[in-house]
Every structure is written in structure tokens, then in C-alpha cells.
Design brief:
Length: about 375
């Protein structure tokens, strides 16, 4: 009986010890910090801080609008025999030809309205003389009087261009353009092979100051910060721009008006590089989150304490205060860490696959914010 009692006491003691050991282990497991979890656990993972770059931009259509201005009507009857390029017209350049007679551009504000020959006087004569001087055919200063020297210069110009050297200029052979070089446009009626009777609108320019605008649905426009950087791309040229105004449309769209950072036109001094048409479509690259590089962690690694401060949990379990400088696409660039350190990420299964990550806390210290 004493032996059996001793056995029962030993078994009971073993059970008590086992229960105590289990309770101790359960307590250890329950109180373990996230940093004590092994890599690859279902809800936590330890990752290394990387050298990351975040940022976000979107490309939209930018509409460039300029009001067309009629510069000259055609005054030469006949068949259009040539049509020349008008994207970069200089003094003396041919625009088109009717029955072999070229129509050329010169600088001037006064439209040409008559034949010019010896004995005529006026601003139209002065404009012709300025062109002849620019082209190297006339040496005296323009005086607005068509004399022998002007007639001789005209004959020299005509010989140089292969025209009959009459020493006189017919109405219709010159078009006055306020400034050159410039981009001009020919009317739709002025095409090779067309028959012109005279009087048709022929040459147009556009207003010197074009307007640039991006039209977006209201929900997209709401995502464009007022101080967003915008780059307008025209061929190989990129012009910086800012959003200078917004207008709500009756159809629910929002028009974002663009200007250069100094408040002028987006194209600055290069507006003549735009096509001489009323409406042109270019690409506007809108930067929503400015590109920023630095130590990067998944946004799921960044936590917020009771005071609103942000921190991460290092692999050794310590809390490391950080400042989020920018975030986007599931990554956050932070101050307070160095590349190569290891931190704990909450919900490691999502972070490991880079999908569905929490957008993370709002940046502090004026950092940019993107929807990660």
C-alpha cells in the first residue's frame, strides 16, 4: 500500500510539473514580441531595409489652344503650283505659288494692298525695303520711298530666286507677318492643284500666347495636388508647368489651366515651335508623388504610437523612431534607418508578395504622400 501511494504521489507530481511547464511555455509564446517570430511566419516577417525610390506620376492629354489670325488673302488668280512648309518661316521664304508666281513672307504689320514700283511711297514700301536689306540686296536705310535703289534691289532679289527681274512687285506676291521666324498656316483652299480666283483666305498665323489645359473627370482632378509638378512634352522638348487655375464644367469635368512656373505661357519663348493650328494635343506628365530615394521599408512595417509618432520594430525587438518622407506602391522612404538593417513587417504574407499592402501612416515633417 505504501508503494502504491508513493507511485500515485510521483505521478501527481509529474502532472503538476508538466502542467506548470506547459503554462510557462504558453506564457512565453503568448508574450513573445513580433520580433521574436521566425522569418516566414504566417503574419510576421523580418525584412532588410533597402535603398528605395518612390514616386508617382500620370500622363494626360494637354490641349493647346491658339486663336487663328488671318494675315493675308490670296490676290493671284490661277492654279496653285507649289505649297511649301510653313512650320518655321523666315524673311523671304516662299509660302506657296500660283501659276508659278511665288508668294513670300516679309516682316510687317501693314497688309500689302497694291502693286509696288518706282514712285510709290508708304509703310508697305518700307516693309519691302527692310526685307531687301535683311536679305542683303539693299544697303541704304529703309525710307518708305520706292526709288531706283529699291528697284535695283528688287531685280537682284528676283534674279536670286529665279524670277523675271522686273524691278516691281505685284499685289499678292508678298505677305506681311508681324514677326519672323514664325509658324504659319495655309488655308484649306490653298492646296497644290487648286484653282484660285483671288480673294480667298490664304495665310494665317495664331495668337502669340497659347493656352494650355488638361481636362479631367472630377475624381481624377481631385487627386492632383494644387502644387503638383507638370511637364508638358512637345516632341523632344519638355516645358515645366504648374496648375494655375481650375474650372468646374457643367458636364462634371474639371479644367486645369497650366502656366509656366513664372506665370507666363508654358512654351515660354518657344511657342513658335508649336504647329500653327488652332488646337494641338500634347502630353502632360503630372507628378502626384515627387520621386524620392532613401532607406526604404514596406509600409506595413511602419507603425504609429499613442502620441502619433511613427516607428518600426527592429529584428531585436527594439522600437526605432522613423520619419516617413514619402510612400507609394507599398514602400515608404524613411529617415532613422540605414540600408541593411532588419525590421519586422506586419502581415508578412502580403508584404512578401507586394500586393494589397496597407498604405501606411501619413508622412510627417511635410513629406509627400502617395496611395501605396
Amino acid at each position: 500500500m505504501r508503494v502504491r501511494a508513493g507511485v500515485r504521489q510521483a505521478v501527481a507530481g509529474a502532472v503538476v510539473v508538466g502542467v506548470a511547464a506547459g503554462a510557462w511555455w504558453a506564457g512565453r509564446a503568448t508574450l513573445a514580441t513580433p520580433a521574436q517570430a521566425e522569418d516566414g511566419a504566417a503574419d510576421h516577417v523580418v525584412v532588410a531595409v533597402t535603398d528605395a525610390t518612390v514616386g508617382r506620376s500620370y500622363s494626360y492629354n494637354a490641349t493647346v489652344t491658339r486663336r487663328p489670325v488671318l494675315l493675308a488673302s490670296n490676290a493671284l488668280p490661277g492654279v496653285v503650283t507649289r505649297v511649301e512648309a510653313t512650320s518655321h518661316v523666315r524673311v523671304g521664304d516662299e509660302l506657296y505659288a500660283v501659276a508659278g508666281v511665288p508668294v513670300r513672307a516679309v516682316v510687317g504689320e501693314t497688309p500689302f494692298y497694291r502693286d509696288l514700283s518706282i514712285g510709290t511711297h508708304g509703310e508697305d514700301v518700307r516693309q519691302l525695303q527692310s526685307a531687301l536689306r535683311t536679305l542683303g540686296h539693299l544697303h541704304p536705310e529703309p525710307d518708305g520711298t520706292y526709288g531706283a535703289a529699291t528697284a535695283a534691289a528688287v531685280r537682284g532679289w528676283q534674279r536670286a530666286t529665279g524670277a523675271e527681274p522686273t524691278g516691281a512687285v505685284r499685289l499678292g506676291e508678298l505677305v506681311a507677318v508681324p514677326h519672323l521666324p514664325a509658324a504659319l498656316a495655309l488655308d484649306d483652299a490653298v492646296v497644290q492643284g487648286a484653282v484660285l480666283a483671288g480673294g480667298e483666305p490664304a495665310v494665317r498665323s495664331v495668337t502669340a500666347t497659347p493656352t494650355f489645359a488638361v481636362v479631367l473627370p472630377a475624381e481624377q482632378a481631385a487627386g492632383v495636388p494644387p502644387d503638383a509638378r507638370v511637364d508638358v512634352v512637345s516632341g523632344a522638348t519638355t516645358w515645366p508647368a504648374v496648375v494655375s487655375g481650375t474650372e468646374q464644367g457643367a458636364d462634371g469635368t474639371v479644367t486645369l489651366t497650366l502656366s509656366a512656373p513664372d506665370g507666363g505661357p508654358v512654351c515660354g519663348a518657344e511657342c513658335d515651335a508649336l504647329p500653327a493650328v488652332e488646337t494641338t494635343t500634347l502630353t502632360a506628365r503630372v507628378t502626384v508623388v515627387p520621386e524620392l530615394s532613401g532607406p526604404g521599408v514596406p509600409v506595413a512595417a511602419v507603425r504609429t504610437d499613442a502620441s502619433g509618432g511613427t516607428y518600426v520594430v527592429a529584428a531585436d525587438g527594439t522600437h526605432r523612431p522613423v520619419t516617413v518622407r514619402a510612400s507609394g506602391d507599398g514602400m515608404a522612404v524613411v529617415d532613422g534607418l540605414t540600408v541593411g538593417e532588419r525590421v519586422v513587417v506586419l502581415d508578412g504574407s502580403r508584404a512578401a508578395h507586394g500586393a494589397g499592402a496597407d498604405p501606411g501612416p501619413a508622412p510627417t515633417s511635410g513629406g509627400a504622400r502617395g496611395d501605396g
